[in-house]
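Dear Dr. H.,

I hope your travels went smoothly. While you were away I took the liberty of generating a structure for the chain from your last submission, since the lab meeting agenda had it listed for discussion. I wanted you to have the full record in hand beforehand rather than looking at slides cold. The sequence, exactly as received, is reproduced here:
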Amino acid sequence: IENRAMMARSTRTFLLEKRMENILNCIKEGDWLLIQFGHNDANREKPERFADTELFKTNLIEGFIEPARNKGVNCVLVTPIAMRTFDDRGKCQIAFPEYRQAMIDTGKEAGVPVIDLGLLTAQFNTDIGPEACKTIYMHVPERVFDRWKDGNKDDAHLQFNGAYVYAGIVAGEINRLMDEMK
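The corresponding predicted structure, in token form, is as follows:
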């Protein structure tokens, strides 16, 4: 596994910075490429990152899926994770639903499997509840980290524990996909 994700990148900035070209220079036929975007594509306040859902889909197909397939690489789309956002009934909401749906639609259109991590993490968060989710997201008390002397309440980014749990969910879904391919 080689993680080429870069923080604060959208499909647009990842492609403009030629990061996919670097991946294509290394990846080989038969390799697997997991593609997860959406959080930063949706950010209208950062025009350099923003990609509406139509551009998002085009970027996924033309910038990621087609070039990877041309090298014989297997692609899997992964929807954006849930954020720590709950409704008044305690149900975790799916983050960026229009980008999640665009990714699902792109997977169908391009014949690429989709891991619906947005749905799976929202279900997991609902199961453990908003308080327990603080141990997954960057909720840290004051004086624990020099970076956040006054503490931190971030409902988007993960602590190690959250990354570990969510990676386990992805691994389970990869196993499911492999079983389906047999």
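Two observations you may find useful: Helices lie at 11-16, 19-26, 53-70, 97-110, 117-133, 160-181. The first helix runs from residue 11 to 16.

With kind regards,
E. W.
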